[in-house]
Design goal:
3 copies of one chain form a homotrimer.
Chain A lengths: L1 E7 L5 E4 L1 H11 L4 E6 L5 E7 L3 H14 L13 H10 L2 E7 L2 E2 L5 E7 L5 E8 L1
Antiparallel strand pairs in A: 1-8, 2-7, 3-5, 3-8, 4-7, 5-6
């Protein structure tokens, strides 16, 4: 009751709308009524739910996160991506979404996003039925 | 195994203790041992768990969030509520709570809060058994 | 299907890797395929998943959190630990982790951390099967 899919990210910091992929997996898994977890197995990325209608919303989320947690040479971790690890813990590596009648229980404006903080890379997302 | 209830918020940014409503729904759903997800289907609000004994705690959480992510005309999203979208992703739109012997497994000081960041409004909260 | 264990924290702000304890409980509970929630019943602590290989990663997460949310006498809550309550809501009090073939579905670099923001103390962590 788990499926994994890949996300190709195109810049260092970017949010990718993965709602369609998650919805498709819910159908594949045959989940009718229950819940799923959308899980990011990476430590410099995250999963969030926010408005998917206007791309300026996630642009503003990214802008503010970059302002609050800028890249900096002052971090101890020597790989230059501590800001990405910090953003990952602030946003969180999973979202739990209810499923009713075979479809995700999302609000009108909600979409599920893969949050890349240290790209560009090929990433994995795990979806599991609860 | 899902119930929805309404929350009336009274100001732009306010946290409403919804622990009693959630507890009542757990009883209605007949959940004895398992878990529930408390889910916010809005993109300018969130769900958090924090101290419910002293209202100054959530007052301080709200104050700091407003300081870190103030309203600003500099955002791209034109509706003037980008700060609320950002706070929503920082806090997160759901909490998962264990249920044992028909009651929520919460710590002594914990309560469940609906976090309004773009009120006042009438909002929905979805509670689903896992 | 719930087990609780104790974590002894040694300073005011510190992250403790609890992956081994959680893995051991998953075996004790006999969870083969499903998911668990790792839950913190305290309001001045949290649970996060981040890199466990290099301890400088969580050192940087702690450093940035302390910079964004410093201790301050200006808070309303009179116990002097409002910063800890705020960090708790920013990081979140639980993580949901999938289990496959009896083991946690974690990425290569991921570990589960108990985040202490108001120690040193003896704390509890609840692990429940979903």
């Amino acid at each position: 009751m788990t499926k994994t899919f890949s996300v190709r990210t195109r810049s260092r910091t970017t949010f990718v709308d993965i709602t369609a992929e998650v919805r498709s997996i819910v159908a594949d898994l045959g989940v009718e009524d229950g819940a799923i977890v959308v899980y990011c197995p990476h430590t410099t990325a995250a999963i969030t739910i926010n408005e998917s209608a206007d791309p300026d919303v996630v642009r503003d989320v990214i802008g503010k996160l970059s302002e609050l947690v800028p890249e900096s040479p002052a971090f101890f971790h020597a790989e230059g991506n501590s800001d990405a690890h910090i953003k990952s813990s602030l946003i969180g590596c999973s979202e739990t979404v209810l499923v009713r009648d075979g479809d995700l229980v999302l609000g009108t404006w909600q979409g599920i996003f893969f949050c890349e903080f240290d790209g560009p890379r090929s990433r994995q997302v795990v979806v599991g039925a609860l």
